Amino acid sequence: MILSDLIGAQVADAEGTHVGTVVDVRFVIDGNPGQLLADARLAGLLVSPHGRSSTWGYERSGATGPWPIAQWLRWLHRGLFLVHWEDVSMVDVGRVALRAGYERHDAALGPRTSDG
User: Fold this and answer.
1) CATH number of this structure's domain 3-106, picked from the four choices 2.40.110.10, 3.30.1120.10, 2.30.30.240, 1.10.10.10
2) PRC-barrel domain: from which residue to which, for each copy (predicted)?
């Protein structure tokens, strides 16, 4: 699987009800350091019930400017949520199905710091 299989995919719950579109993914780096980097693992999908475009990083809680763009993107992606990868039951061409009882998590990331 490649990221283009996920980005833009329509997301449905276990009953087949449309819940949004995958607009981004989240990775965590928690593996052993390799030759260049530590291993990354797909942790979840950012699902937007209203928008289909990227969040351009404005899901970060510290992203505030330029103000008109931040406000517009937050309105466009209102209801944005994170679904953990464990809650994905199936990925097909342009389609993602979630397992019964999946949980919606807050998609906001904290502000970037100089520590990483």
Assistant:
1) 2.30.30.240
2) 3-29
